[in-house]
């Protein structure tokens, strides 16, 4: 599969309307290689809709999204550089964790899917459960498998919607370490989260969303909870 590359993603005045409802309204930002950008805001603020547009799963009603010199028209070659973890984990429950990851690695044309799956399970701390059906795993374990599914092809852009959902303390610590490693590798990570304590110290930039609008953008944010209350109002 032809895989284009890019060093930056840029959204310019991006909006998405569903009939008369404005889910996202005129959001603008840029994020470069080695950056973790957080989308923060209450339910219904537009975080998931914005992630879906960045993933090329939804077309903006207006505005543009560029991936370096390319846009969504680049099609499969662009999607081969994007990894997505959403609320739906996109795992086959009747298959084992190993089979799921090897299957998705094969879809991306990875030369040795079995080896890639093995390495991914080691990173997830799930080598001992590799041959168990996904349906038998806890919610947190499925979340860890799904994260590795999203990253199995070494994407340039990782889009993560509430990645800490269902994780215990140990798994959360492992995920934070994984995110730091992604940043160090030159990936662009954009995540939506409600967990301000975990986001504290992790984000290079935070975009605060309310009613579909970016009401504040803060570089190298600290005191996230205080800023969130001041900006969002609750």
Q: Structural class of the secondary elements? A: alpha/beta
Largest sheet: 6 strands, mixed
Helix content estimate: 25-40%
Measured distance between first and last alpha carbons: 46 Å
Figure out the total of helices.
Answer: 8
Strand content: 25-35%
Calculate Rg over CA atoms. 17 Å
Q: Can you give the mean pLDDT?
A: 94
Which overall shape is indicated by the principal axes computed on the Cα atoms? globular
How many E strands? 9
* Order of strands across the main sheet: 5-6-7-3-8-9
| Contiguous uncertain segments of 5+ residues | none
SSE string? EEEHEHEHHHEHEHEEH
Task: Please tell me about this protein's structure.
The chain has 234 residues and is α/β, with parallel strands linked by helices. Helix content is 33%, strand content 26%. The strands form two sheets. The chain has a six-stranded mixed sheet, sandwiched between helices. A three-stranded antiparallel sheet has the order 2-1-4, with helices on one face. Strand 8 (205-210) and strand 9 form a beta hairpin. Helix 3 crosses helix 4, helix 3 (97-107) runs parallel beside helix 5 (139-151) and helix 4 crosses helix 5. The model has no long low-confidence stretch (mean pLDDT 94).
Q: What brief labels describe this structure?
A:
234 residues; alpha/beta; 3-stranded antiparallel beta sheet; 9 strands; globular
Write the layout of secondary structure elements.
Layout (H helix, E strand, L loop, with lengths): L7 E11 L2 E12 L2 E6 L6 H8 L7 E6 L8 H4 L2 E4 L11 H11 L5 H12 L14 H13 L5 E5 L7 H16 L3 E5 L3 H4 L5 E6 L2 E7 L4 H9 L2
Parallel strand pairs: 3-7, 3-8, 5-6, 6-7
Antiparallel strand pairs: 1-2, 1-4, 8-9
């Amino acid at each position: 599969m032809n895989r284009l590359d890019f060093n930056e993603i840029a959204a310019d005045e991006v909006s998405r309307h569903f009939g008369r409802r404005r889910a996202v309204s005129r959001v603008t930002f840029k994020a470069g290689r080695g950056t973790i950008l957080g989308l923060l805001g209450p339910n219904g603020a537009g975080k998931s809709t914005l992630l879906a547009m960045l993933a090329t799963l939804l077309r903006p009603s207006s505005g543009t999204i560029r991936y370096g010199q390319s846009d969504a028209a680049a099609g499969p070659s662009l999607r081969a550089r994007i990894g997505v973890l959403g609320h739906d984990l996109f795992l086959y429950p009747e298959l084992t964790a190993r089979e799921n990851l090897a299957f998705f690695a094969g879809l991306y044309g990875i030369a040795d899917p079995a080896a890639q799956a093995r390495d991914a399970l080691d990173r997830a701390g799930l080598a001992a459960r590799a041959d168990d059906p996904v349906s038998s795993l806890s919610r947190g374990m499925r979340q860890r498998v799904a994260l590795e599914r999203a990253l199995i092809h070494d994407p340039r852009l990782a889009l993560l919607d509430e990645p800490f959902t269902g994780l215990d303390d140990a798994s959360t610590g492992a995920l934070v370490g994984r995110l730091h490693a992604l940043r160090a590798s030159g990936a662009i990570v954009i995540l939506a989260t409600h967990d301000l304590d975990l986001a504290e110290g992790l984000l290079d930039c935070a975009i605060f969303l309310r009613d579909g609008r970016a009401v504040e953008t803060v570089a190298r944010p600290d005191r996230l909870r205080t800023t969130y209350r001041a900006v969002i109002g609750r």
